[in-house]
Amino acid sequence: MALPSRARSARLLVVTLVSVSLVTITIDYRQGDEGPLASLGDAALTVISPLQEAVSKVTKPIGNFFSTLVRLPSIRHDEQELRARVAELESQIATSTDGSARLSELEALLGLRGSLGEDIATTGAQVIANGVSNFEWTITIDKGSSDGIGVDMPVVAAAGLVGRVTRVAPDSAVVQLIIDPDSFVAGRLDVSRTTGLVSGEGERELRMNLVPTATEVMPGEQIVTAGYKIPGVAEGVFPAGILIGSVSRVLPNEADLEKFITIRPAVDFSTLDVVLVVLSDGSG
Questions:
Q1: 9: Cβ contacts below 8 Å, ≥ 6 apart
Q2: CA of 90: how far to CAs of 83, 94, 95, 96, in Å?
Q3: Domain coordinates in residue numbering, the chain
Q4: What's 233's DSSP letter?
Q5: What is the DSSP string of 196-226?
Q6: 51 SS3 class
Q7: Which pLDDT score, from 0 to 100, does residue 239 have?
Q8: If you average pLDDT over every residue of the chain, what do you get?
């Protein structure tokens, strides 16, 4: 029980000293600087000053704490406003970036439309579903038979060949991608002009067959659609000159009569957004 007793004694001493100092200061003030208690007042102030400083160090943080508690709702409100503003700015930046990218893609698609020729009819379409997986290699677009789209119509993107329409509804259509294992496209090497058959390999790169072993093929060489047409016999689905991809590997086999070529597709099928459907080849 010694600690409480000491605490009370300390408080009593502080109160006594403060009272004495106040009385002394009052009397000394009335008597002026030459008063008999002037020296005693100076001594009292010398004793009281350190105590006042100690009390201030203890009480000031407590005061700040309670002041912060009072201002806490305002601080939280300001923080929420700042967070909301940051989120708004981030959204504006993302929208601006996405809009710029989309504009560039549409401009490139418009350029591709011009390169196909004035006689070829096309329509733009939005990709509304992407079925790229281990079991399905298709996309769905937001236009169908009511827009003049039919089965086997070619589909292209700004980067190159996408595929062909396989199913049609009034307001939508399913497009088989050229990476589908059941997809086959007549392709032509851009340098040698040698033709071959490009087939889909799913997640792996495209494969080009029927290229003679004597053909010189360089990595990076581009492959475009051949666009053949044999009147009364057969006709290629895709217009000529559309980029399919570029050669990634050439693996000649002396025992075979053809080269094994792998092709890196020009189109990133996982990020397709807008495409162009070729409605006619301009012949009719």
A1: none
A2: 11, 6, 9, 10
A3: 2-71, 117-284
A4: T
A5: EEEE--TTSPEEEE--BTTS---TT-EEEE-
A6: helix
A7: 87
A8: 75
Closest C-alpha among 82, 89, 171, 84 to residue 125: 171
The type of residue at 268 is D
Check if the beta carbon of residue 27 is closer than 8 Å to that of residue 37: yes
- 250 neighbors 145 (Cβ within 8 angstroms): no
Q: What is the pTM of this model?
A: 0.63
Dihedral sign for Cα atoms in the order 80, 82, 85, 90:
negative
Buried b (16+ CB within 10 A) or exposed e, 28-47: beeeeeeeebbeebeebeee
- 214-267 tens-digit pLDDT: 889 989 999 999 976 555 545 678 888 999 999 999 976 666 777 889 999 999
Residue 33 to residues 46, 47, 49, 237, Cα–Cα distance (Å)? 16, 19, 20, 113
Local structure of 47: helix, strand or coil: helix
Report the CATH number of the 117-284 domain.
Answer: 2.40.10.340
Report residue 177's pLDDT band, with 50, 70 and 90 as the boundaries. very high
CA angle 208, 245, 136 (to 5 degrees): 75
State both tokens at 110. Answer: 């418009």
> Where does residue 108 rank: exposed (0-12), middle (13-18), buried (19+ CB within 10 A)?
middle
CA neighbours closer than 13 Å in the CB half-sphere of residue 80: 6
Question: Helices in the chain by DSSP H: which ranges?
Answer: 2-31, 38-116
Those residues with Cβ within 8 angstroms of residue 64's Cβ, 6 or more apart along the chain or in another chain: none
pLDDT tens per residue across span 80-123 = 666 776 676 666 655 555 556 666 666 677 767 766 767 788 88
Joined tokens for residue 140: 């769905």
Closest CA to 124 of 142, 98, 97, 145: 142
Q: Is the pLDDT of residue 60 over 60?
A: no
